[in-house]
Amino acid sequence: MLAAFIGCGGYGVHDAYRAGLFTRPSMPEGAFSVSYKSGLRGILVDVPNEKTTRRYLGFPQKVPFYLEDAWSFCRPPNEDEQEHVSAFMKDRNWPGERFEAVCKIEVDDKVVVRGLITSVPKL
């Protein structure tokens, strides 16, 4: 019994480590986080948390190796990004899919787009 408890606890700690939860920065009020096996880790700001009814999909962008596991802040696209979002979503005709956020990392006063987040209904 004790061995099973320790095994489950160890797996939970390992899973949290793999998801980057021990390195996640503090989150603004109302934000929530997502983490993917691809390395994309995002803190969604100004996006409604609908995890109970929607599944969040992450689309990582190519970044330098040292940014692959870094946390990014994700926000709805601004006016300048709308054209790129439209081009991304044009080829995706999935029923119920919705574009949610652009994830960015700031490095040495430069902004790197880390990934894109969409959501689909949970069935």
Q: Considering DSSP H and I runs of 4 or more, what fraction of the residues is helical? A: 10-25%
Average pLDDT works out at 84
From the alpha-carbon coordinates, what is the Rg to the nearest angstrom? 16 Å
Biggest β-sheet: strands ordered side by side in the sheet: 1-2-4-5-6-3
Name the beta content range: 25-35%
Pick out the low-confidence regions: 7-21
Can you tell me the overall shape? globular
**Element order: H for helix, E for strand:** HEEEEHEE
User: Mind describing the biggest β-sheet?
Assistant: 6 strands, mixed
Oligomer: single chain
Structural class label: alpha+beta
Per DSSP E runs of 2 or more residues, the count of β-strands stands at: 6
Q: Number of helix segments?
A: 2
Report how far the terminal alpha carbons are from each other. 36 Å
Can you tell me about this structure?
The chain has 123 residues and is of the alpha+beta class. The chain has 2 helices and 6 strands, in the order H-E-E-E-E-H-E-E. A 6-stranded mixed beta sheet has the order 1-2-4-5-6-3, with no helix packed on it. The chain is globular and about 40 Å long. 17% of the residues are buried.
